Amino acid sequence: MSAYVRIRKPDVLREYIDLVGTQTDVAALAGLSLQRLNQLYIGVHDVVEVRKAARLEDVVGARRGELFEAVDGELLAPYIHAEDDHADAEPVETAA
Questions:
Q1: Residue 29 pLDDT exceeds 60
Q2: Cross-strand bridge partners of residue 48
C-alpha cells in the first residue's frame, strides 16, 4: 500500500525543476519517468506516491514537505508513530 502526496504550489515545483536542469535530467535523478515528471510539471496530475515525491524534493534541493502535502493527512496520522511510542509494549509471540 502506498501513501500519496499532492503538490502544494505547482509554480514553485516548476521553478525548482527549472533551476536544476531539464525535465529529462531531473526525472532521471529522481527515478521518475519523464512522462510522469512532465505530468506533474504541467499540472495534468498533481498527486504522486510519497517516496517519489521525497526523491524529487531531494533532487531539487527542497526541504521535505516543502513541495508536497499529504492527500489524506488526517487518515494517515494514526499510522505515524515515534519510535518509542511502543517502547513499553509487550512483545507479540509468534508461532515458530
A1: yes
A2: 5
